């Protein structure tokens, strides 16, 4: 069984599912309307009240998750946590509350996971489709064919923010709706052309907002005279007119709409009207799949050794013209050296391997200081499957691959990170000295100091090796670590 936890801008949710044939069967789903986006103050900080609500919810989720035998759990956070200025203070508390690491994913990664969930639910390998997901803090547009994503973009407009900005105090009127729609259209205007109908056959709405809107339209008979499948601009206009007639969020009480959604559905409706008009969408079909389903599929594929991160690294190396033979050699040697150092878990080895495979990509920018360019590119690149935290760690490893270690000194307190740095730097030294580590790996240990034992013939046959090892000793000495070398 797998668990996917989605810490969204409007609601916190989790789903537990198991792989069953060609599908993931959902066994349990829980949703709590936390309204995190509404808890951002004027300075962009989460308020104490918003953090308290979130932590209480996460404690509750932890209790429920503990009742299942789970193979893997992944917790992802989206727009509001990406934007909160005090996230560094809140995140450790949130992780302690739920008992798992929390990955703050980019809008593009959010879109990819959403599409993965939709594509696997539809199982139509040749269909060209557009997926629209309106969240509490952002909206994602994803264009794809079957299981392949061709384009993904995240727009900083969501149902919570739109509701708070244009329906002040909960009041609903015609001018407010038109202003909210116009605002949404202006956000999608520049990015719209690649998503126009000539590039896809069917459009799907994957978010709870779009499903809720479709439910209300269906249960209130607002789609009469609309022959197309799904939600149409005409049915959206009919729902807008119904809300304007009601006049205030507090008075919304109509079939198909849960009371806790009333406060944000007007903003979501304005966005959906805006995106359909701007993109020229004639009908959009709601689908019961999205981010959490995509996360569970991603967990399943990782368990089957089909990790999207491997594909991302291969594609990125090809894009930047990396010498894959050299890179693979460094990766293999670094893995062999790290194994001797006995890291605390598998994560260090995976991040080290990916960092090693990309360690020279900065050469596409400049031969001088390429490690700095590599570090910058890895941290800021769009690498599908990777979290922001993983990319930052890989970036630091790339930066630490050569030169002084003062630039990463504060991170060397993490034992696994320090071990990975030792393994990567030595693997690069041995690669330059043309020493075949796979044939006769040097003995390496690391406790209070680094202990390296080299074969005497290595030193004799490779004159530059002594020079590079001496430089390594100097660099480690600068950060208070003794590198002891023995020639055997």
From TrEMBL:
<dbReference type="InterPro" id="IPR048950">
    <property type="entry name" value="Ppx_GppA_C"/>
</dbReference>
<dbReference type="InterPro" id="IPR003695">
    <property type="entry name" value="Ppx_GppA_N"/>
</dbReference>
<dbReference type="Pfam" id="PF02541">
    <property type="entry name" value="Ppx-GppA"/>
</dbReference>
<dbReference type="InterPro" id="IPR030673">
    <property type="entry name" value="PyroPPase_GppA_Ppx"/>
</dbReference>
<dbReference type="Pfam" id="PF21447">
    <property type="entry name" value="Ppx-GppA_III"/>
</dbReference>
<feature type="domain" description="Ppx/GppA phosphatase N-terminal">
    <location>
        <begin position="18"/>
        <end position="300"/>
    </location>
</feature>
<dbReference type="InterPro" id="IPR050273">
    <property type="entry name" value="GppA/Ppx_hydrolase"/>
</dbReference>
<dbReference type="InterPro" id="IPR043129">
    <property type="entry name" value="ATPase_NBD"/>
</dbReference>
<feature type="domain" description="Ppx/GppA phosphatase C-terminal">
    <location>
        <begin position="309"/>
        <end position="472"/>
    </location>
</feature>
<keyword id="KW-0378">Hydrolase</keyword>
<protein>
    <submittedName>
        <fullName>Ppx/GppA family phosphatase</fullName>
    </submittedName>
</protein>
């Amino acid at each position: 069984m797998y668990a996917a936890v989605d810490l969204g801008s409007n609601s916190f949710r989790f789903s537990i599912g198991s792989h069953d044939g060609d599908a993931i069967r959902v066994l349990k789903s829980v949703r709590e309307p936390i309204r995190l986006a509404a808890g951002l103050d004027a300075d962009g900080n989460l308020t104490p009240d918003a953090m308290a609500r979130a932590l209480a919810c996460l404690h509750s989720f932890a209790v429920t998750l503990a009742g299942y035998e789970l193979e893997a759990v992944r917790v992802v956070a989206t727009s509001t946590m990406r934007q909160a200025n005090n996230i560094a203070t809140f995140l450790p508390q949130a992780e302690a509350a739920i008992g798992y690491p929390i990955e703050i994913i980019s809008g593009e990664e959010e879109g990819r996971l959403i599409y993965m969930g939709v594509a696997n639910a539809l199982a139509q390998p040749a269909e060209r489709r557009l997926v629209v997901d309106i969240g509490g803090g952002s909206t994602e547009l994803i264009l794809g064919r079957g299981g392949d994503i061709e384009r993904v973009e995240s727009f900083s407009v969501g149902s919570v923010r739109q509701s708070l900005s244009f329906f002040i105090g909960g009041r609903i009127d015609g001018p407010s709706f038109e202003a909210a729609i116009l605002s949404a259209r202006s956000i999608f205007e520049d990015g719209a052309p690649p998503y126009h109908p000539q590039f896809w056959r069917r459009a799907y709405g994957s978010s709870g907002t779009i499903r809720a809107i479709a439910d209300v339209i269906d249960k209130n008979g607002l789609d009469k005279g609309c022959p197309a499948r799904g939600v149409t601009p005409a049915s959206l206009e009919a729902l807008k007119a119904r809300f304007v007639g009601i006049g205030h969020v507090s008075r919304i009480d109509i079939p198909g709409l849960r009371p806790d959604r009333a406060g944000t559905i007007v903003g979501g409706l304005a966005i959906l009207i805006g995106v359909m008009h701007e993109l020229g969408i004639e009908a959009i079909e709601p689908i019961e799949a999205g981010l959490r389903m995509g996360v569970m599929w991603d967990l399943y594929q990782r368990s089957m050794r089909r990790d999207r991160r491997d594909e991302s690294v291969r594609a990125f190396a090809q894009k930047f013209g990396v010498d894959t033979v050299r890179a693979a050699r460094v990766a293999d040697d670094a893995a062999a050296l790290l194994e001797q150092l006995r890291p605390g878990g598998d994560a260090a080895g995976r991040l080290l391997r990916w960092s090693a495979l990309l360690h020279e990509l900065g050469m596409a920018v400049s031969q001088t200081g390429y490690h700095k360019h590599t570090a910058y590119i890895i941290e800021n690149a769009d690498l599908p499957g990777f979290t922001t935290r993983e990319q930052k760690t890989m970036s630091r490893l790339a930066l630490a691959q050569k030169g002084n270690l003062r630039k990463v000194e504060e991170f060397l307190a993490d034992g696994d990170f320090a071990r990975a740095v030792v393994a990567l730097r030595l693997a690069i030294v041995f690669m330059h000295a043309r020493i075949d580590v796979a044939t006769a790996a040097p003995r390496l240990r690391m406790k209070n100091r680094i202990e390296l034992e080299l074969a005497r013939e290595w030193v004799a046959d490779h004159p530059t090796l002594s020079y590079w090892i001496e430089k390594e000793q100097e660099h480690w000495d600068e950060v208070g670590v003794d590198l002891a070398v023995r020639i055997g």
